[in-house]
Amino acid sequence: MILKNLWNHKKQNGFVFVEIALIAVLSFWLIDSITVWVYGNYFCHADGEFEKEHLLVAQTGRTTVIADSVSSEADLLAPLFAFRDEIARLPEVQSVCLTQNIVGDGYGRWSYRAMASEADTTRTCSAYFTLFCLNQRYFETLGLTVSEGSPSAEQLSSETPDDGVVLTRSLARALFGTDEAVGRRVVQIEYSPDRNGKDVEQMTHHTVTGIVEDVKPENHERHYYLAFFPYSTFGSNTPQMLIRLKPEASAAAFVAKHSNFTNGSYGFASLSTYKDYQQRFPLISQYIITTLLSTLGLLFALNVVLGTLGTFWLQIRKRTEDIGIMRSFGAKRRNIFWMIWGEGAMLTLLACIIGQIVWLQFAINIGLADGGIRATSLREADWVDSFWPHFLIVSTVQYALLLAIVTLGMVVPTFIAMYKRPVDALRHE
Fold first, then answer.
1. pLDDT more than 70, % of the chain
2. How do 199-212 and 164-168 pair as beta strands?
3. Were 59 and a residue from 36, 269, 294, 368 both cysteine, which residue would form a disulfide, CB within 3.0 to 4.6 Å?
4. By C-alpha distance, which of 363, 365, 351, 361 is closest to 399?
5. What pLDDT band is residue 30 in, cutting at 50, 70 and 90?
6. What span, in angstroms and rounded, lies between the C-alpha atoms of 243 and 138?
7. Exposed, middle or buried, 309 (CB in 10 Å: 0-12/13-18/19+)?
8. What is the pLDDT of residues 45-69, one digit of tens each?
């Protein structure tokens, strides 16, 4: 019945069909990006990922000149450690850590290399590498949850040996197929050029000392493979500082109150919440491109919504006389509505299929169908990395969104036409 009605009104429906098909082609990439972004932001969360609302990041800075009499590293860093301890004694503070690397600092500020199980170096995976300074309460300040069978966060921060490494849960599974990897051996593989410019493979061996939960580099990202390596000394005398506040403390109030805190030798060159810190490092070009694409995407989406609403409004208005005839023959309003809605849903489905076939051909021609759309060896694969689940999920989301717009465009004019008296509807032009 629905297909028959669509065919009977083929001249009217033909224009609508072409319009929705074009929208389906042009909007697929936009809806794909939005779908993955929403998934990364709201559905991709590790159970033990650290709590960020009460985490602050500071850049330490010397407020006095280093005296000529300072010759040893211990004397050089003594004022820094005194400053750290003074911050730790503030009533709002739960834990403090000095560090040169901040987990979750996105935009390529981490380095990544290959890693493999020592028992099978033929199976390698890429992983991000970050460093933590021993005896600085790193893991407990960051708030990472350790997995069952792993030493506590306090032990990992202070007792990891020089040849030890702490892995995230997903990296342990990728290397060993299990979370229970404490005590196993891994190989870090690097390639560095020799005198002739040829890459030479260098392998270093490490013992897994602990397993922690996965970490997201950015809110919209998914979890990456990550390995934590210990180091014993700072590369400078002005490292960064992580500050974890107590649950009842306000991060914004702490930043406002202590931004200029100093003990005479050291002070804060900058102090911000962890989330604000993450947003400081986008490249200018990347920021401009992202802003431009977001603006164009918003304008396109607005035009799609308004154009589709207007098209269906006019189409239903032209069928007011038909609706009046059906009402005069005793047709119920709900039956009329579901018939018209069914036509719109079928028209949208057929148009989306055409648009999705176009994108499928594009994906096949550039080789995406042979692998993942956003595949990477730096994290566990999920539906985003598998072509067919990815394509089908995005296609379903696209159809649902376009159907919602079509439904919105036909509801009001349909109800206006249905609630007219049949005699008035028959006189409608």
1. 74
2. parallel
3. 269
4. 351
5. confident
6. 10
7. middle
8. 766 678 889 999 999 999 887 766 6
The angle, 0 to 180 degrees and rounded to 10, between the axes of the packed helices 387-418 and 10-38 is: 130
- Distance from C-alpha of 343 to C-alpha of 322, rounded to nearest angstrom: 14
Range picked from 102-106, 409-413, 415-419 for highest mean pLDDT: 409-413
pLDDT band at 186 (very low <50, low <70, confident <90, very high): very high
The per-residue pLDDT for range 116-127, each reduced to its tens digit, is 998 888 778 888
CA distance 400 to 38: 15
CA–CA gap between residue 248 and residue 425 (Å, rounded): 64
Q: Among all chains, which residue has been given the structure tokens 């400081």?
A: 280
| b/e map 76-85, b = 16+ CB within 10 Å | ebebbeebbe
Q: Supply 154's token pair.
A: 């306090």
Q: Is the pLDDT of residue 103 over 50?
A: yes
Long-range Cβ contact pairs of 271-274 (< 8 A, separation 24 or more): 271/56, 271/57, 271/58, 271/59, 272/56, 272/57, 272/58, 273/55, 273/56, 273/57, 274/52, 274/55, 274/56, 274/57, 274/104
CA distances from 32 to 37, 100, 281, 348 (A): 9, 36, 25, 18
The DSSP annotation for 303-348 comes to HHHHHHHHHHHHHHHHTHHHHHHHHHTT--HHHHHHHHHHHHHHHH
Round to whole Å and give the CA distance between 352 and 394.
11
Average confidence (pLDDT) over 191-197: 70
Residue type present at position 380: E
CB of 84 closer than 8 Å to CB of 96: yes
Q: What is the model's pLDDT at position 9?
A: 60
**Unique residue bearing structure tokens 């050029």:** 193
Residue 25, phi then psi, degrees to nearest 5: -70, -50
* Token pair 């098909």: residue: 21
Give the per-residue pLDDT at 89.
Answer: 95
Q: What is the helix, strand, coil percentage profile of the chain, to 5?
A: 50, 20, 30
